[in-house]
Amino acid sequence: MQINNNxxxxxxxxxVAQLLWKSPGISRVEIARQLDLYRSTVSNIINTLIDNGVxxxxxxxxxxxxxxxxxxxxxxxxxxxxVLGIEVQPSGFHAVVLNIVGNVIFSKSGGIPELPFDDxxxxxxxxxxxxxxxxxxPLLGICFAxxxxxxxxxxxxIKSDPFHLVNHSCTANLSTRYGVPVFMENDANCLAWLELxxxxxxxxxxxxxxxxxxxxxxxVFGEQTGMGVGLGIALGGSVFSGSKFAAGEFFSVSWREGVxxxxxxxxxxxxxxxxxxxxxxxxxxxxxxSLVPVVSVLDPEVVFAHGDIxxxxxxxxxxxxxxxxxxxxxxxxxxxxxxxxxxSDLSVASGAAQMFYLQLFTLPVCSDRDPGTMIEWDAVFSxxxxxxAKN
Length: 391
What we know:
Elements: H1 2-22, H2 28-35, H3 39-51, E1 55-60, E2 72-76, E3 82-89, E4 92-99, E5 104-110, H4 117-133, E6 139-146, E7 149-151, E8 156-160, E9 165-169, H5 171-178, E10 182-186, H6 187-198, E11 207-215, E12 226-235, E13 238-239, H7 267-271, H8 277-298, E14 302-307, H9 308-311, H10 313-323, H11 325-334, E15 337-340, H12 347-361, H13 377-383
Parallel strand pairs: 3-6, 6-10, 11-14, 14-15
Antiparallel strand pairs: 1-2, 3-4, 4-5, 7-8, 8-9, 11-12, 12-13
């Protein structure tokens, strides 16, 4: 019975907190109406959230048509806690700290220490923790985004070619060291988490996030020069990982067995994507031609384009109009939008941090998430009263 009580408690708190996250300024009465809960139940949940510093009362709203007391508008407390999201690539890292309302309160980029993978992550975190301490907002969790096939429910890097890792896990040790939950997720999937968060008001639930980043040859992990591509897929409002956590791993129609990389384009083309318009055009044609059957089968509402594609949005649109008309035709026939991101270097890291909040605000389920990785509200309440662990 205790398990059922904990489940129901977390479910109720998550439902209410999610609605406050989606609709700032909402009242207790409106929460009860939208969630079809008794007002007394909602009041008890709100009181718990207020007592633990998650929610505060903002102001009185407009009177109801039938009269009576004015409703009290509620909001999330942006000082309650924060989450650190870190994108890690062989070429460097990007880190952001988001508060519970989704505002960036700290960001930093830098190189990867020339150390083994686990030591490199600790080096990055050690360099960030002292600065996070000075934010004077409790740290609730850390989420890493990196290229590869990641079992995010267990924190296992099943395979990451850029980092030469297979069945590698380090989240438990990092969690012990820094005193907060630590998660791992695929970088493209983090963009799907980002768009779920950014579009929570519009309720976009089915889309593809296209991520592409150019990487130069790396001396630490041996990555080759070229463009890395990945897809993050959201279906029914959840990030879809696939049966073996490899959903979104991309290979173009030109790729053949025995060819290094994700495409059959020549090494010369891949090396010169940043400097030669003909090379970039050939790559865009190869990429979006390969996406035609993907979009046709998945029937998304939107294709979000991030990274280097977003940074060259005008040129990409020109190439699509003249060189890949079949992709344009499919978007029109499917009533699907192509939306370019802002090209920010912090997008993936922001999505990693948003993953924590989205999982916190999502109803707990008993099927596809490992019970040991569930984010429970009592644990979050406890973390919100602590400071960042010093090393």
